[in-house]
Amino acid sequence: MSSATPLLDVWEAAKAQPYHPGVAKNSQFLVGFLLLLTAFFLTGFFGLNRSVVTLPVIGVPASLAFGFGSVYMICAVGVYV
Where are the transmembrane segments (predicted)? Predict the structure, then answer.
C-alpha cells in the first residue's frame, strides 16, 4: 500500500488546481471557423504560388491551421475525438 500514497498525494494536489483550457468552450466554434477560413485562403494562395520558398512560409501554416481548426470545429459541434 505504500506505492499508492504518492498517487493519492498527486490526486489531492490536483484537486486544488482545476484545469482551465486555453480556449473556452463557448469560443471554440469561432476559433475553429477562423482557423479553417485562414487555412482555406492560405491553401489557395499556396496553390497559386508553389515554390520551395512558399512551402515553409505558407504551406506549413496552412496545414497547421487546417488541423487545429478541424479539431476545434469537431469539439465545438459536440463530436469528441
Answer: 29-48, 55-80
Asked whether 77 and 28 are in contact (CB, 8 A), the reply is: no
Q: Cell 476559433 appears where?
A: 31
Q: Is 58 helix (H, G, I), strand (E, B) or coil?
A: helix
User: pLDDT (tens digit, 9 = 90+) per residue, 14-63?
Assistant: 888 888 889 988 999 999 999 999 999 999 999 998 888 888 999 999 99
How far apart are alpha carbons 27 and 67 in whole angstroms?
17
pTM: predicted TM-score of the whole model, two decimal places: 0.75
Question: For residue 63, which phi and psi values (nearest 5 degrees)?
Answer: -70, -35
Q: Say if CB 79 and CB 32 are below 8 A apart.
A: no
